[in-house]
Each structure stands twice: as C-alpha cells, then as structure tokens.
C-alpha cells in the first residue's frame, strides 16, 4: 500500500490493518479532509446479536467517529426479508417481521457500546432500510432502478458465480439482494449525504454496484472501502470457536467466556488483533505482539482486557481476569465461571456426568462427552474423570462442582437454593 493519506481516518485504517481495498483512495481522503463525512455499514438482522466476525466493521465505525466523522448503522429490516446470498451454500431461512424487529433491538445494544448516537454533527445515526424498501412499487422500481443493472455483470460477481459454479440453486429472491443493497447506498446518499460504504472484502461487488447506481441516478461521487476477511493464523474463520459463535451480547455469551476467547488467541495473531480490536498505540501493539515464551501470555491478557472493556466494561474485564487467574493459576473455583444450576426436580435420583458435560456446554452431545472422558480430556474438581457412567446426586452437589474440558474450558455445576 503506497498511498500516503492526509486524513487521520485513512491513516488509522492503513496503519492498523483495516484496509483491504478502496474504490478511490485520493477522492475519499480529500473528502475526509473537507468536512464531516457520513459513512455506513449495513447489518442484516438475522440474529439477536452480532458476533466477533462483525467486530472489525464496528471498530471501523468507531474510528470514523473518533476521527471526526459520522457513522450510520443501517439495519437490514427490509433486506433481511430476502437474505444475502454472498458466499453461502444455501438459502437463508426467512424470518417474520416480528423476529426481525426483535433481532434489531438486540443488535442496537451492541452498537451503543462502541459508538455514540446523538444529534451532534458526528453523532451516529441508526436507520432501517425497511423505511424505503417496504414502500417500493415493484413496477416503478424495475423501471427507475432495475434498468441500470446488467444481468451479465451480476452473474460475473464472485458471490453469485461461486454458487452457480457449484451448481447450487440461487433463487430470484436472493439474486435481487444486490440490487436492493445498491439502492440502500443511493437512498442513504440522497437522504443523509452518506459518502462512503464500508464492508468486508466479500462485499466489494455490492458496494461498487451502489456507487455506479448513485452516479447514474443522482450524478453524485461516493466511495467504498473494504476490510479484510479475517481468519486466525491457523486458518479458522474469525468469530467462531469450537463451541459456536462468539457473540457480543452478554446474555448470549458471558463476559468471562468472551474474555477467554481473546486470552486463547494464538501467539502469531496477538499483534495484529491488538491493532484491530483495541485502541492501544501502534508501537505498544507491536511491542506486545513481538513478545515470546511466557511473556506473550501477558500480552494476551492485555488483549483480552482491552477488548472485553470495550464490549462489556472495565468491571467485567477485571472480573474475568481475576476468575481466570484463580482457575488457572491457583486451581480454584472462580465466581465468574459459566454456571449450571440444577433444581432437585432436575436431579431426581441423580444425573449422569455425561449429561452434566452436555448441559454445561463443555460437550456438544453425549457421544462427544464420552469421547472426552475416554481421551482423558475431562476433569471433575481438577481430578481426572475416567468413569463415563458416574452418577452425580444431591450429596455430591452439596458444594458446587467444577467440570473441565481440556486445560482452558471450565464450568460450575451447583444445586438451586
């Protein structure tokens, strides 16, 4: 990347590793120097929370605001009814309007932690594309907007081509998605003066569509900037763990488990993740990322604390760190561990250790739990668990029991009352 930016925002994007591509580096850089630039990212409301895979986008909007510009979070209340086909092997299940609204409420809580919504010139806006998409007249839309799209060109986009190359069905409903996303950019420019769309690099084709459409219909110059699609150094998709998605809402994933995800970062990723997911100075990120041996573990604690503080607050980060130190360094039972509380009715005459491993989330199924025990990967109160037929009764739960899977995953089981 040889471009030397003048604006603070572009400098941050390049130095910290946010930039994959830009439709016009110089044009966007100059716009950023000339006044407050509104920029948006669209998020489909397919779940009640966003996960760590979206965090690079959220941090992009946070930096946009911190450097004097206006973030717009666009909720896909309309497009969620269609579903984004990008790089998916199958069609998304369709949600009801009530489910979509419920999901949007959950996602709003995530954004409010990272950016500030207000009436100030740089105060963030939250909008829902149902505002304009729900009102569209199909024939007018075909005539005014559809005529600007070439099917030949749409078929050449990687997101569509990959589905067709694998001979997987792509419905007309999904095929329309890219037109609707382009139309979002046009409407945000028309209504709010939005000048730039951000997205992962898989969104490049959709972003370029919106720029072309806005140029043709309004004759306005707008821009696109993409972030890299992140994988961890061992090739895993960012935001996924062995136990599923790493959610950003505390009611879907405890702050302790969130903290633990970052603490378990592989050594090679520490410096890069510090730049992307924290606001520590670049020099400090480089220094911490270059540590070796046991010292890199302290850098991982810094990473976990910084990221958890942004997402869940400083108290949650401190509680997670002290629980982790108690569990790992002293072999104790931390108060903040994921906890399964059983009633006397749940327990009956006793419950099998296999069921407890599943209930606590340490195993995905009974079969998985038995394999864990057979491979000596399970512990009960820090002692090896060797008997898959073990039954746990009320007497055994007179004090909370700590279950472990491997060295890094733990849970408490206790009796209600």
Automatic annotation (TrEMBL):
<comment type="subunit">
    <text>Homodimer.</text>
</comment>
<feature type="short sequence motif" description="'HIGH' region">
    <location>
        <begin position="45"/>
        <end position="54"/>
    </location>
</feature>
<dbReference type="GO" id="GO:0005524">
    <property type="term" value="F:ATP binding"/>
</dbReference>
<dbReference type="InterPro" id="IPR024088">
    <property type="entry name" value="Tyr-tRNA-ligase_bac-type"/>
</dbReference>
<feature type="binding site">
    <location>
        <position position="40"/>
    </location>
    <ligand>
        <name>L-tyrosine</name>
    </ligand>
</feature>
<dbReference type="GO" id="GO:0042803">
    <property type="term" value="F:protein homodimerization activity"/>
</dbReference>
<dbReference type="InterPro" id="IPR002307">
    <property type="entry name" value="Tyr-tRNA-ligase"/>
</dbReference>
<dbReference type="GO" id="GO:0004831">
    <property type="term" value="F:tyrosine-tRNA ligase activity"/>
</dbReference>
<comment type="function">
    <text>Catalyzes the attachment of tyrosine to tRNA(Tyr) in a two-step reaction: tyrosine is first activated by ATP to form Tyr-AMP and then transferred to the acceptor end of tRNA(Tyr).</text>
</comment>
<keyword id="KW-0067">ATP-binding</keyword>
<dbReference type="GO" id="GO:0003723">
    <property type="term" value="F:RNA binding"/>
</dbReference>
<dbReference type="InterPro" id="IPR002305">
    <property type="entry name" value="aa-tRNA-synth_Ic"/>
</dbReference>
<feature type="short sequence motif" description="'KMSKS' region">
    <location>
        <begin position="237"/>
        <end position="241"/>
    </location>
</feature>
<keyword id="KW-0436">Ligase</keyword>
<dbReference type="GO" id="GO:0005829">
    <property type="term" value="C:cytosol"/>
</dbReference>
<comment type="similarity">
    <text>Belongs to the class-I aminoacyl-tRNA synthetase family. TyrS type 1 subfamily.</text>
</comment>
<feature type="binding site">
    <location>
        <position position="177"/>
    </location>
    <ligand>
        <name>L-tyrosine</name>
    </ligand>
</feature>
<dbReference type="InterPro" id="IPR014729">
    <property type="entry name" value="Rossmann-like_a/b/a_fold"/>
</dbReference>
<keyword id="KW-0694">RNA-binding</keyword>
<protein>
    <recommendedName>
        <fullName>Tyrosine--tRNA ligase</fullName>
        <ecNumber>6.1.1.1</ecNumber>
    </recommendedName>
</protein>
<dbReference type="GO" id="GO:0006437">
    <property type="term" value="P:tyrosyl-tRNA aminoacylation"/>
</dbReference>
<keyword id="KW-0547">Nucleotide-binding</keyword>
<keyword id="KW-0963">Cytoplasm</keyword>
<dbReference type="InterPro" id="IPR036986">
    <property type="entry name" value="S4_RNA-bd_sf"/>
</dbReference>
<keyword id="KW-0648">Protein biosynthesis</keyword>
<feature type="binding site">
    <location>
        <position position="240"/>
    </location>
    <ligand>
        <name>ATP</name>
    </ligand>
</feature>
<keyword id="KW-0030">Aminoacyl-tRNA synthetase</keyword>
<feature type="binding site">
    <location>
        <position position="181"/>
    </location>
    <ligand>
        <name>L-tyrosine</name>
    </ligand>
</feature>
<dbReference type="Pfam" id="PF00579">
    <property type="entry name" value="tRNA-synt_1b"/>
</dbReference>
<dbReference type="InterPro" id="IPR024107">
    <property type="entry name" value="Tyr-tRNA-ligase_bac_1"/>
</dbReference>
